[in-house]
Design brief:
Elements lengths: L2 E6 L8 H14 L3 E7 L9 E4 L6 H11 L4 E4 L2 H8 L7 E6 L2 H7 L9 H5 L4 E4 L2 H5 L6 E2 L17 E7 L8 H19 L2 E7 L5 H10 L6 E4 L8 H5 L3 E4 L14 H7 L3 E5 L4 H5 L5 E2 L4 H13 L1 H16 L5 H10 L3
Parallel strand pairs: 1-2, 1-4, 2-3, 4-5, 5-6, 6-7, 8-9, 8-11, 9-10, 11-12, 12-13
Helix pairs in contact: 7-12, 10-13
Length: about 350
């Protein structure tokens, strides 16, 4: 058993993949190790092993140093290297330093906009281990990291119910690299083609919020797509499983931009476990998440993505085969004993 400290500035009640995965990693490691977690800049209720430091960034180093001095830790796991990894590098500690990277923050290194912003690459060079969420992310740091895919939990998703229409779901922040506009552009054609063969309409539901929401709302109204597309609000991660279970297809139309990229795509595993099939663009780490060429299209190849949707919704045998594959693929990522053994290899200094 090791004594570990996880530090992060992205944790529940924040919404997002890193926050959710950090919760799951904390729970997994506690099965075998003594683990504390400190969440910086987040308002939450302290509980056993969890400390929330709702303070301005300028005070983070003071609190971080105070926490480290309370106990002799074997390793400190830094889930958000900016700013916490940079700050930890300035503090003397005998604990081993394990830093996590996800892809997006590495792209920011390539387009520095702030003179005083430290480089992620320079920060992680001072760590003892770097953990990456995909082979794609590892390729951005010359394959020097330890691969550990995001965790998913084994949950009851409920029974799938028959409907008189097909439902496609996509979810995330309304930002450029999520590229939801691509799905909005093709949904009316998907509806028309699928209806010809099945007499069932196709509807798209987009869950989330963000700076581009008004642009999407305006596009939908301007192109008379309100019957096919619903822009829904943000949903807490723990409440997404019934949404996945209610869908036929989950779409990940993300693309790589100068500022961002999809490092993996945990949604494919969560949806697969709930009986839905995930499709997407071959961007960043999405290929590793979906693992099936027949469910992937090149970035912004809307014609190919459209044809994948049509085939899934009009060919029952094809859909059922992909549904079965998706479930089995998802099980490999469950937060169980095998994943704990995998992480113990990272801790074996």
């Amino acid at each position: 058993m090791k004594t570990l400290l996880i530090i992060t500035s992205d944790y529940e009640p924040n919404i997002g993949g890193i926050a959710v995965d950090t919760v799951r990693l904390f729970k997994l490691l506690k099965r075998k190790h003594s683990v504390d977690l400190a969440a910086f800049g987040i308002n939450g209720d302290n509980s056993e092993g969890e400390t929330f430091i709702d303070a301005k960034k300028i005070f983070f180093p003071y609190h971080l140093k105070k926490i480290i001095s309370r106990k002799k830790y074997d390793a400190i796991l830094v889930r958000t290297v900016l700013p916490l990894g940079w700050m930890l590098n300035l503090i003397k500690t005998e604990a081993k330093k394990i830093y996590f990277v996800y892809g997006q923050e590495l792209l920011h290194d390539e387009k520095q906009k702030h003179f005083f912003r430290p480089s992620v690459r320079s920060i992680i060079k001072k760590s003892d281990r770097v953990v990456v969420n995909s082979k794609f992310t590892n390729s951005l740091i010359d394959n020097s990291g330890f691969l550990f895919y995001p965790l998913i939990e084994n949950v009851e998703c409920g029974e799938r119910t028959e409907r008189n229409f097909f439902k496609i779901i996509t979810a995330g922040r309304f930002v450029k690299h999520k590229n939801f506009i691509s799905m909005i552009r093709i949904i009316d054609r998907a509806d028309a083609e699928v209806f010809k063969k099945t007499k069932k309409h196709v509807k798209l539901e987009i869950y989330g919020d963000g700076p581009l929401r008004k642009d999407y709302d305006d596009f939908i109204v301007r192109n008379n797509l309100s019957d096919n597309v619903s822009v829904c609000g943000r949903i807490e991660s723990g409440k997404m499983n019934p949404v996945y279970a209610s869908s036929d297809i989950i779409a990940m139309p993300s693309i790589k931009t100068n500022e961002s990229v999809e490092g993996f795509g945990m949604v494919a595993q969560e949806a697969g476990l709930c009986g839905s099939v995930c499709i997407g663009y071959d961007s960043g780490g999405i290929r590793e998440s979906i693992e099936d060429n027949e469910l992937l299209a090149d970035e912004n190849d809307e014609e190919k993505l459209l044809n994948i949707i049509i085939r899934l919704l009009t060919d029952n045998n094809f859909y059922e085969a992909k549904q079965k594959f998706s479930r089995e693929r998802a099980k490999k990522h469950l937060a169980g004993e095998e994943r704990l053994k995998d992480f113990d290899e990272i801790l074996s200094f």
